[in-house]
Amino acid sequence: MFDWGSNALHELLRTDTLDFEHAKTKIHRPAMFNNTDELITRLMTSRPYHKAVIFTDNAGADVTLGVLPFARYLIQCGTNVILAPNSQPAINDITEPELLALLTKVQRIDPVIRDAIKAKQLAVYGTGSSSPCLDLRRIDERLVRHSRDADLVVIIGMGRAIHTNFYARFNCDVVKMAVFKNFMAAQVVGAHIYDAMCLFTPKSADTRIMDGAPS
Fold this sequence. Notes:
This protein has helices spanning 7-14, 20-26, 36-45, 61-76, 96-109, 111-118, 141-147, 158-163, 183-189; strands at 51-55, 80-84, 122-124, 152-156, 173-179, 196-201. It is an alpha/beta fold. It is globular, with a radius of gyration of 17 Å.
């Protein structure tokens, strides 16, 4: 919910009237945009993913209480994890240098993260972008090279998962996670403002591989 790029939230943030309890009352989870149970079932009952690429979103609570614990869980399952933040600043999105600095602090208190970094099971590669959106045709070649054998892609954030990749299809499992914070974007796909989206789509036989997309 912390997003300087959303007009719907800008006034709440400006007037300091958006706290955690207030935010919880606004979030809705309609079934048409949320099949979290299928994702949980896949994670709990099938073989671990070989490699996951997680396109990160906001700095702050988003990455420390959301992305890193999820990455940590995947690591403990035996999955190699690539975190893919922006290379340059955009609104309040975390950048590659900021995420590397954060991981330096996290590994001091968390042996799971420390050992994963040491074993190269956890890595950070910037997208090459300075935008809250995500154009998979134009991501950094280094990220492309290290992501070629990924079998899970996770795209987080309204700009990345809704505005630019809502209809994108992949040749691997994909999770798109965001909150609708733009009235027009929500209306186009039949959502309401502040609907939460967690869409898990398994690899499909008729996927269209996008240039530059992890495969």
